[in-house]
Amino acid sequence: MGLARFFWVLFSLANLSFPLQAAPLKTLAQDPYWHKLLHYRPQGGGYLSPIGSKDFFLSPQGPISPEAELASNLTAFTTKPNLQCQFPARARWLKKQLPDLSWGQPECPLLDQWLAHYRPQKLSLIYAASFMGNPGSAFGHLFLKLDQGQDSLNDPVVQFAARTGDAAGFEYLYLGVFGGFDGFYSLEPLHQMLKSNLELDDRDLYEYPIDLDPAAVEVIMLHLYELQERPIAYYFFLENCGYRLLELIELGFDGSEPFEKSRLLPYSIPTDAAKELINKLDLTGKHQFYPSRSRRFYALLAQLDAPEKKALDALLATTQNLDQPHFTNLSAPSKARVLDEANHYQRIKLNSRLGQFEAVDWWLGIKEAQNQIRQERLKLLSVRASLGEFPEADPALPPGIEAAHGSARIGFGGFAQDQRQGTLLYGWLAYHDLLSRPTGYLPYTELKVFDFKLEQTQNQIRLTHLKLIEVLDLTPRDRYFKPWAWRLFLGWQTQDPLKPPVFQGLGQMGLSSNITPSVLVYGLAGPGFWEQGFYIEGRGGFVWQGGETWALQGYAQSGSGPQQSGWVEARFYLGQAWETYLGWNPAPQTRFESGLSLSF
């Protein structure tokens, strides 16, 4: 302990009117629960708290010294008892550890009022599935629902999120990755959270009840009160919504082993945080499902017969077709199904955010089209209301995120390329690729971070690629919705065994469509850069998804850049975690690969 810190602790102890023989200060200051309350973590042989608000600490040395902060808290709480109202969770814990002290009886009207408004009967974890439209949400998102026992859409929901201001593009990514944003805990009504996620972001939600006794729920609420509007360091790949919510929930488990908030390497993503809580608390299969708007649309579309689909297409073209026989001749239940489906379609169209971009709106006329949809929708809703109640069947309950493969992967294999043979070591830090087992992930998407492959021959160990990030979204077009397919790549890769990997970046857009329910074809093109300058590259391919058993893909790519090749790969799933693959690259030199990998 430094000299200044020693004298500060000594001064604080001198102001205490009690002996500490029963619970020595140093021992109490090293209690893991005290560290949880102040969010201390080891750093450089000492400690550091990421809380960026100075008034969260009562000692000037508080952010780095658990002992100094403990001494200052004991002095403040016993000499000025009303300070306990600002920090009720730590005051509650200290009283439990040192019950013989004179703590006073502070009155806390603001705290009492806040608890009366927000206090829940129980808690639930809500996991929001990936959203590819926002880098910060591509790995899922976590919320904590404060269930007040009335099954109300007004139940408060807690989230931890970065305040990003006007940051966009590269600035947004850079600040998010390297801690340039502050994160804050906030509360919003359940109905607002549902609208934002189910409607605007079109994400499925999974709710898991957390079994905690009332005392544990109370201490979580008290700590949440302490954290209001206090900035905390935020990192996309570590101290994010999942990491911070696990910290908060962990306070309800006094004396238990802490949750694993990060993996073998110092990173954490919300999907893994959700799995950690679900597995540790035995919540597997106990979820309630909130389907996104698009899932509802396609689930109901599958139930419509041919006359109902014909009537749907006619109504989406114009509401004047409400008086035409293909709608009027339908039975009342059929009419209700058609109108419910039309409402789903119109809601998805109205939720599009592309109209916020002036250039896109000028090109596509999105806002004008949305205004027309609003007028048409009012007519359809009026007719639907006149039909009475015909409840819509809920989509099938999918497996929870706990059934998904692990986000990190490591594998071993072999290759043969012309006269060269050797072994392979490959894997990625996160998250999911196009042929991975699809359960729990968005279909026809790929998001990989730090994807690498090493090959070993008798003469050398060689890096064939290191992809810092690769994102691919091949959501198919259909007669109702026409999303763009796109791909983003940044990293090093090579196909020539005599040359080292080349750093390159690439962005592509294109089209994708299902030619059968399980086979998708696509085409992409776009600009890239490498050591020799800029280039244009195109790619065309297919994906054949064989359910929970296997998947197959093939593609060819060509252009003025470094990659002139094709690839065919078959993937076979051996349960939730294991996969094996066979791959063939016909050019520039024929190459065969195979491997076995484990996700974790």
Topology diagram in text:
Elements: H1 3-14, H2 25-29, H3 32-38, E1 41-43, E2 46-48, H4 66-79, H5 88-97, H6 109-118, E3 122-128, E4 141-147, E5 156-162, H7 169-177, E6 181-189, H8 190-200, E7 205-210, H9 214-226, E8 232-234, H10 241-250, H11 270-280, E9 288-290, H12 293-301, H13 306-317, H14 325-328, H15 332-350, H16 358-364, H17 366-386, E10 409-417, E11 420-428, E12 430-432, E13 445-456, E14 461-473, E15 485-493, E16 502-516, E17 519-530, E18 533-546, E19 550-559, E20 565-574, E21 578-585, E22 591-599
Antiparallel strand pairs: 1-2, 3-4, 3-7, 4-5, 5-6, 6-8, 7-9, 10-11, 10-22, 11-13, 12-13, 13-14, 14-15, 15-16, 16-17, 17-18, 18-19, 19-20, 20-21, 21-22
Number of strands: 22
Q: Quaternary arrangement of the chains shown? A: single chain
Q: What percent of residues are in strands? A: 25-35%
Question: Mean pLDDT, nearest integer?
Answer: 90
Outline type:
globular
Text of the CATH class of the largest domain: Mainly Beta
In helices, the fraction of residues equals 25-40%
Number of domain units: 4
CATH A-level architecture of the largest domain: Beta Barrel
Give me the number of helical elements: 17
> How does the helix and strand content classify structurally?
alpha+beta
Instruction: Calculate the terminal CA-CA distance, rounded to whole Å.
Output: 40 Å
State Rg. Answer: 28 Å
- The strand order across the widest sheet is 10-11-13-14-15-16-17-18-19-20-21-22
Q: Please name the fourth-level CATH homologous superfamily of the largest domain.
A: monomeric porin ompg
CATH topology of the largest domain: Porin
As residue ranges, the low-confidence spans are 1-23
How can the largest sheet be summarized? 12 strands, antiparallel, barrel
